[in-house]
């Protein structure tokens, strides 16, 4: 991979999928007596963009946090490539270096400039030199329209700019898999499009992504497959043209009808 452009080594999917980048098998997750995930099975092929949709509380964010090992699971297995990341004695830090995650909140360090935010993890975790980390970060910031913000502090940026910096920070770790958790939900409506444009560019470059989103039109346009979660289970999944146009399950139809009535699809 070139230092400045993680997407350069990736090619867009064409035709058949290449291999499993992520496998989730029978995952259960509970918080005390509340069972949030109730037997989740999910396969993401290399270069796929999988969108998770569903009402708030359906388990989308918890699933992403389990995939990134931020939450332990009670049952099931999760594989990244050929590695079972939920096996005992796994090196959590090594696994997390392979999986990028971006949250609703930007979580930027307020006392650091944009450049310092983006280069901190590559220097500490990947042991990049300051020069290499700065060169990679500068190219990524340029690529996503933030070159003139590299020396600014987060509080000088708009919400959309801060979220783009958060995505760039995740990309600077050169992940195999990128998880995006409702990354537009905290933004003003006029700022949503600039973040979605970044995600579209990543998809076009072949980045493997799992995206929890309420942006239904975006999911319909960008996803390889869409998974509808309801009360901790995957109730229905399929290509976006099928799931959005002819859902099989009554609960999926009800959910989409409410989305349409709200003018969001």
Structure description:
This protein is of the alpha/beta class and 265 residues long. It has a single domain (17-261), classed as P-loop containing nucleotide triphosphate hydrolases (Rossmann fold, 3-Layer(aba) Sandwich), CATH 3.40.50.300. Helix content is 35%, strand content 24%. The protein has helices at 60-67, 92-96, 114-125, 130-143, 159-171, 189-204, 216-222, 240-245, 250-261; strands at residues 20-31, 34-45, 49-53, 75-80, 83-84, 99-102, 177-181, 208-212, 225-230, 233-238. The strands form 2 sheets. It has a 6-stranded mixed β-sheet, sandwiched between helices. Strands 2-1-4-5 form a 4-stranded antiparallel β-sheet, covered by helices on one side. The chain starts with 19 loop residues before the first strand and ends with a helix.
What characteristics describe this protein?
alpha/beta, Rossmann fold, four-stranded antiparallel sheet, 10 strands, globular, disordered N terminus
Main β-sheet, in a few words?
6 strands, mixed
Q: What oligomeric state do these chains adopt?
A: single chain
**Assigned CATH class:** Alpha Beta
Strand order of the largest sheet: 6-7-8-3-9-10
Mean pLDDT: 90
Query: What CATH architecture would you give?
Result: 3-Layer(aba) Sandwich
Order of helices and strands, N to C?
A: EEEHEEHEHHHEHEHEEHH
DSSP summary: helix tally: 9
CATH topology: Rossmann fold
Name the CATH superfamily assignment.
P-loop containing nucleotide triphosphate hydrolases
Give a short summary of the structure.
The chain contains nine helices and ten strands. The chain has helices at 60-67, 92-96, 114-125, 130-143, 159-171, 189-204, 216-222, 240-245, 250-261, and strands at residues 20-31, 34-45, 49-53, 75-80, 83-84, 99-102, 177-181, 208-212, 225-230, 233-238.
């Amino acid at each position: 991979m070139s230092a400045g452009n993680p997407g350069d080594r990736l090619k867009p999917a064409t035709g058949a999928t290449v291999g499993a980048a992520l496998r989730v098998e029978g995952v259960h997750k509970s918080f005390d007596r509340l069972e949030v995930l109730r037997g989740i099975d999910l396969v993401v092929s290399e270069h796929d963009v999988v969108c998770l949709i569903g009402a708030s509380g359906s388990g989308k964010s918890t699933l992403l946090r389990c995939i990134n090992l931020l939450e332990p699971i009670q049952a099931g297995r999760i594989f990244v490539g050929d590695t079972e990341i939920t096996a005992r004695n796994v090196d959590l830090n090594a696994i997390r270096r392979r999986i990028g995650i971006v949250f609703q909140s930007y979580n930027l360090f307020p006392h650091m400039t944009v450049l310092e935010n983006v280069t901190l993890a590559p220097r500490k975790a990947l042991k990049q030199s300051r020069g290499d980390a700065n060169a990679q970060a500068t190219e990524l910031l340029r690529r996503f329209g933030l070159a003139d913000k590299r020396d600014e502090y987060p509080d000088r940026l708009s919400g959309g700019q801060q979220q783009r910096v958060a995505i760039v920070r995740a990309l600077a770790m050169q992940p195999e898999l990128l998880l995006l958790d409702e990354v537009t939900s905290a933004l003003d409506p006029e700022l949503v499009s600039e973040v979605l444009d970044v995600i579209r560019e990543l998809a076009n470059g072949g980045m493997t992504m799992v995206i929890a989103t309420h942006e239904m039109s975006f999911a319909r346009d960008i996803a390889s497959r869409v998974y509808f979660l309801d009360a901790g289970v995957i109730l229905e999944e399929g290509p976006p043209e099928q799931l959005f146009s002819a859902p099989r399950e009554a609960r999926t139809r009800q959910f989409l009808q409410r989305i349409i009535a709200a003018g969001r699809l």
